[in-house]
Amino acid sequence: MLRRLLPVLLLAVCTPPATVFADTPVTDTAASAPVLPYMGKGELSDLETRFRLAEAFMERREWFRAATLFQEVGLQSTGAAAQFAWIRAGDAHLEARQWERAVDQFLTAVTLEGPHKGLAGLRLGQSYFLGKQYDLAAAVLEDIVMSPAAPRDLRLEAGSYHTLSLVEQGGFLAAAGNYRQLATLAPDPVVQRRFGELAERAEAARDLPYRSPVAATVMSALLPGLGQAYTGSWGEAGLAFTANAIMGLLIWDSVLKAQDLDRLGVRGWPYTSTVVYGMLGSSFYFGNIYGARVHRLNIEDFPADGVSVQRSADAMV
Length: 317
What we know:
317 residues; flat; 17 helices
């Protein structure tokens, strides 16, 4: 065993840090320039090494280990390097769905001086939004949208989340105005038209009557599709009712056939198809409950990322 491990240990000891981390890119979503010091003589600094190792942990979806390393780099760095390290620490917590911890990291990044303050503010607003603190999200993101010095893509993305925060609070008229402003920022005519359609939808949504989320959920549990019909989604109501009715008939038919086979003394367990249909039917049933509309409009119809809308403009034609 020792003879087998010896070559591996020698290779690990003799391999220089530049070779280990040479293939791990360090990029900023807002600027592609390196943000941490590089020695320039074939060797990486200790901070750069830990930063690249944290990025490798991000690729492996080890969010806690990545966040810990990013925080260490942020504490020991200054300027842009520290700011971006704290942003990446917050990104790791976002990936782990730890909204409050992400907020703490992005707040630290916002307080630091550096070129990534706009990106830190965007991430902070997104963290508030995902944590359902819509009033705080709207306040933070509005500053980015109203800043003429911010890059256009950054303002588009911040504006999209800012508008969604208004929608969640019932501010449909303000959301419509935001979408029209985003249409003026988007350079692509297709995206401009898309934002115009969203503005019209937001204006129409303010006149819809309020529907209780609890009532919609209970109705869908009692009768599939009833909750969707209660909130005005008639197409989904018909689909949910039809799908669950078909699955119910298949389950009932399989039970009758299994009982006949059981009476005839057929070898084997005759209820296999019943179990399969039952599992499928359960997924349809609980999906119907989960899919009951709990908002006055379909929040999924509004893009959460203005930049992604722009990149997929050709697909919208």
